[in-house]
Amino acid sequence: MPLAPLPEILIEPLVRQALLEDLGRAGDLTTDAIVPPDLAAKAVMAARQAGVVAGLDLARLAFRLIDPAIRFAALAADGGEVAPGAAIAVVEGPARGMLTAERTALNFMSRMSGVASATARLAAAVSHTKARIVCTRKTTPLLRAIEKYAVRTGGGSNHRFGLDDAVLIKDNHVAVAGSVSEAIRRARSHVGHLVKIEVEVDTLAQLDEALAAGVDAVLLDNMSIEDMKRGVERIGGRAISEASGRVTPETAPKIAETGVDLISVGWLTHSAPILDIGLDAV
Amino acid sequence: MPLAPLPEILIEPLVRQALLEDLGRAGDLTTDAIVPPDLAAKAVMAARQAGVVAGLDLARLAFRLIDPAIRFAALAADGGEVAPGAAIAVVEGPARGMLTAERTALNFMSRMSGVASATARLAAAVSHTKARIVCTRKTTPLLRAIEKYAVRTGGGSNHRFGLDDAVLIKDNHVAVAGSVSEAIRRARSHVGHLVKIEVEVDTLAQLDEALAAGVDAVLLDNMSIEDMKRGVERIGGRAISEASGRVTPETAPKIAETGVDLISVGWLTHSAPILDIGLDAV
Amino acid sequence: MPLAPLPEILIEPLVRQALLEDLGRAGDLTTDAIVPPDLAAKAVMAARQAGVVAGLDLARLAFRLIDPAIRFAALAADGGEVAPGAAIAVVEGPARGMLTAERTALNFMSRMSGVASATARLAAAVSHTKARIVCTRKTTPLLRAIEKYAVRTGGGSNHRFGLDDAVLIKDNHVAVAGSVSEAIRRARSHVGHLVKIEVEVDTLAQLDEALAAGVDAVLLDNMSIEDMKRGVERIGGRAISEASGRVTPETAPKIAETGVDLISVGWLTHSAPILDIGLDAV
Amino acid sequence: MPLAPLPEILIEPLVRQALLEDLGRAGDLTTDAIVPPDLAAKAVMAARQAGVVAGLDLARLAFRLIDPAIRFAALAADGGEVAPGAAIAVVEGPARGMLTAERTALNFMSRMSGVASATARLAAAVSHTKARIVCTRKTTPLLRAIEKYAVRTGGGSNHRFGLDDAVLIKDNHVAVAGSVSEAIRRARSHVGHLVKIEVEVDTLAQLDEALAAGVDAVLLDNMSIEDMKRGVERIGGRAISEASGRVTPETAPKIAETGVDLISVGWLTHSAPILDIGLDAV
Amino acid sequence: MPLAPLPEILIEPLVRQALLEDLGRAGDLTTDAIVPPDLAAKAVMAARQAGVVAGLDLARLAFRLIDPAIRFAALAADGGEVAPGAAIAVVEGPARGMLTAERTALNFMSRMSGVASATARLAAAVSHTKARIVCTRKTTPLLRAIEKYAVRTGGGSNHRFGLDDAVLIKDNHVAVAGSVSEAIRRARSHVGHLVKIEVEVDTLAQLDEALAAGVDAVLLDNMSIEDMKRGVERIGGRAISEASGRVTPETAPKIAETGVDLISVGWLTHSAPILDIGLDAV
Amino acid sequence: MPLAPLPEILIEPLVRQALLEDLGRAGDLTTDAIVPPDLAAKAVMAARQAGVVAGLDLARLAFRLIDPAIRFAALAADGGEVAPGAAIAVVEGPARGMLTAERTALNFMSRMSGVASATARLAAAVSHTKARIVCTRKTTPLLRAIEKYAVRTGGGSNHRFGLDDAVLIKDNHVAVAGSVSEAIRRARSHVGHLVKIEVEVDTLAQLDEALAAGVDAVLLDNMSIEDMKRGVERIGGRAISEASGRVTPETAPKIAETGVDLISVGWLTHSAPILDIGLDAV
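Above: the input entities. Below: the structure tokens describing the complete assembly.
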């Protein structure tokens, strides 16, 4: 099944709000002053770097919301790899609207493609193992849904979307509960049957306690490679294993080779640089 | 005059929306299950890296909107430099709310502090000249106001906030108008008396044409250091000079030494990594 | 751990919108005409029927949003059982605001208490078994969060909150995929590691297929009591078992005695009558 | 004149919000995983019980907002009676969108049809008299406009829509004013010439006072059948007469036979069960 | 009973939106640059013309939403007459917030006071008769509620608030229906019992038809003074009589002397000049 | 370049909100009751006075948002002068929607055309000079963008749009700073390079100080004609000159003849009467 697009009803408010943020109260002074209303134009959206494309629907919407007469023909699909200089889309129609919507379209696409490209690089680094790259809740405020989508686009998988769709017991929760097992017990008695429970453990002793209590997943936090290996062995398939802690393309392969199921990386969404994408008049 | 804070009426909707994005429909399942409602806690927000702090008001608001009983005492001010491990704020009050709001507070602060820190690094690199670092419209969708603020916090200055508060004539506009001078003429006859006009020029010939037509500022785009120097000489104080084009901390000093007034850097807002900030229970 | 309240940031928009719906453009004509602005009043919110109370925070908010000077002292807690005539809360303060907010406060409380009371009745009917009562997505549009909360208040548990927090494979999905196992395979490869997968099965053959493919939960849809029993045996603890299909207080005990873990009831949220609650001036 | 539809500008925000409530942050995980994007489907929306249909425009909108390519052909009209099994509409188009929007469409239609059907039953019970069935302000928060519409669809009439479109003087208002006549006097001097005034009376003495003061309508609250009859006689056409107080299909005929113009029933909107409606793939 | 204030829940969104409209993305550049954050100030809001004050609650809210530390002490009440130079309120607190909110506060107050003052002038012109001045639906878009309130403040009365709170049959409706009486018949059978029906009539023949059909009010549109007098006689108290058509303070007395109950004036809300009000530092 | 239209994304929310304000909860009772759903109609929007038209896009949107089947054919363009009785647009389609949207469409057009017409009158009065008419921030709350547009439509120019797009140093700011030059110094060091600085001066001494400090524009506030002339001479082209203070069509020519560049007039947006426009059935 190909990657499912985000429903337009979810992304339209974001694109609309971003356009309004750029238009302010008076709109595009420069373009309104200089470009005749009936001038037509054609432009190519092109990558200036190699990477993975994400966000075509948002770029299309940015142009459409400014002027429905603008045609946006994608030459790539979200998730596609592009070489430097590769054309991603052809945009054609009234020149005014194209110039007015350009920056908003590019701001969405370059940021989402940046996240997708970073994810793809990490995914490639661990592709010789079964490990998958997952993101965290360290996302850009207000953009979580599209950043999580960009991670999927880059070949990664999503951790929970918020505080309400899964339980993740962290060190502070354990401290309050008194023990890993008591924290798990409380969580299980509180949540519905379709909510999974994951526990963050710092030591193998905590891991044993979590496995004994029964959990869906364990997060091996900042463990040494050696401890991770031992942890994966002890888990023995009884829970999903996730590793976290300052993962880089360099350290990822070793972490993946410990046998963990998942490697979570906050950097993907909080610090990945954009993919440089431009719009060139034809 | 110290840096002016953003009015709460402007930032409250962002913080509220970010909290709702994280809470989803059911709130913080983990904390609700494990942490008793009457448990009090105390935590320190601390920098894990050296950098410049920005966003304290948004962090304070995140906690307050979840529970007004949480007290947030800042130990630093926006714009202050922090060393690794330095305490930024003390947060005290009901433990539940603190755990629920923590990630949203940190997501705002770490991102804004990342922008401020990157700006400060660049500003330091050119501090031996009169050049100032400015940002662009390549900002995170929906977060332009707080990213522009973070740039100011880091010692930078702001370019226009959107399409409506200044005219910036780019190559496409010049192409449509037929010449730099015609584009300037159209802009001047269109806009109000409090709107400045800046023109992007690629060559010294275009620069001469712009200066002859009279503009408030010129953007020397992707010029060689040599051409920039000549450009600044020709301008001779008749317009504000701005340089742009893939500026890095390494290239910035040379660019600044050409005598330009401003160096604009998209990277500050589209690709600066976060400043790592955490919340540690006491 | 007592039932966790809904965060005010989640419920305030609902209460505010409901008040605006009632106030219209001109506010409370009757009260404004008749009641002097400085008149104080005291009233008791009382149950007119036996039931379980839910929604006190929304009622309190309704009064506070109209006039912060109104004091709302709860005499019961959400989840508490009340007898006919029992006082639930004392409301005191400016008479105008109390009369203006009364209907909105009662509309929330009586509806939520109706859901809680219906849930409690069903939960009591199966309390001799391990079965829990759960709700569905057949909720009142726009009120899902508070109806799910009301179900918890009545002693029930929550099924998924929407289309995005768990997978529920229904007959149509199976038909498209070609088989139960193919549907499960597609779901597993698509979703993140913290998303559970449940499958609706109509026959024991489908159940066997689901169990072989491995799922977190199975929904035995409209099966005979006999088949349910057999189904529970075959599951043998390998998945959570859920029964559904026109459950009533009369049929619930027999269904529960089959050994299923959960009984889901759409009626709780789409058709439970309100609990009659009134506000009586003292 | 046939029943006028609700303007789309009024109902679109409700349908949109309900869809977003169901989609959450990530959309329809199950359908996205299992159903190919290009699969077409056809389904019939059918009643599972006899009743009166209401809400077709909202159902149509739910499908259209998810995918404009879905065609929704109504086979009935709002207000039409349907037999068990009767087809109400044919829905055709992309299977994904149909599955994603289905629950929201049905949640609106079944609830509104439930209100319409309950109204129709009561209206039938008094059809041998001139009495009309009217609803109250005891509506579902946020859904008043569509519930009032559903009441009209079922052959009922609408009481006031909120606190601002008519005056309804209740016992508390009378208590504050000191007398029925003083309350009426205050109301009349306060409101505009197009605002009607109705007074709730508990006794025939109060009724006489109200009639002497001159009102547009009187609400005979919880009176005995005998008193109601006397009340109607005394009114003698000088005001509209309304009866209220725990009306059921059983008691309604007797109440109607007293000669009252209106019988108001809160139950229609706060406790009527849904009309069971399903969507069956063809 | 004194004039009832508008509920804060109704006016707060307007004031908030107006402040955001003025603050834009970056706030008050001038004040932030020049005024120290800790400077306190005191100012007097004063009328520069004689008139009637309206909108004090909105002015107070404008200051409070910018800075809750600003104190706003009203020296007059809505509806009070002020002489030129009269102090209306004293504002005290942080100078920054006072300067930032000043224009928004004054924009609301001067506009609303302008409407109130114009109403008061017209009301005075007909005070020797029983006629009341009423407004129309020709209000400023988005400000209807506060303009209708301003009319009440000036001693006027309100016509309907919108299309949904009363029936007003105009010439086009009559043309469609075929006759005044058929239009009235259709309206009566369509609307609820608390909705009044008014008909616009151009001739005495139409008036007779309307009275025969039975209506709550008749609008004598653009009739001669002579015809109005005859109209009022024919009505003989059977309906409320309203006159309209380019009313001025000069023509109003003659119209009022015809005996009509109401004189409606669109000019009050669409063209009344503001009352000049300023804020002077002390 | 012809006047640029406002982007639809900016004006649609205003028109939508205005329609909802008029529709209330129940829509157009009168039209729904009387006009058959399938009746077609044709009407002409016509000026009842001479003036300048503005707001055609908002009128078109009002009809389209109520019913997309309504066709709106403009016979004039924004900025066009119309004679009394002149047709502005032809509206054709379903009669119901036309009647329902009519008032909202006219409320926008008549108000905006009123502002445009007033501006045009003043602009004509000074057309023998180089002076331009500009508006202020004394606009109708929530309607600033469309009122500023209407001023442009009438041949005027726009002052700043809010507090954030330019610096305007007023007497209070000067008082706080201690001097005009210190206020200018603070402003310059605070704002970005594309923000202009204007200073309000009351005396020629202040003017000299401002010119010495260097500003983009000076506002000669309430000066005598004689002083204005001297002021313009002293400025000698070094700054833009603006005159303000109770300008009328009578006083404007003399002010303009002093040689000022701009004359600002708050009256245009806070007190200009509407242009009377009606919709006549054909």
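Note for the figure: The interface with chain C takes residues 21, 24-25 of chain F (CB under 8 Å).
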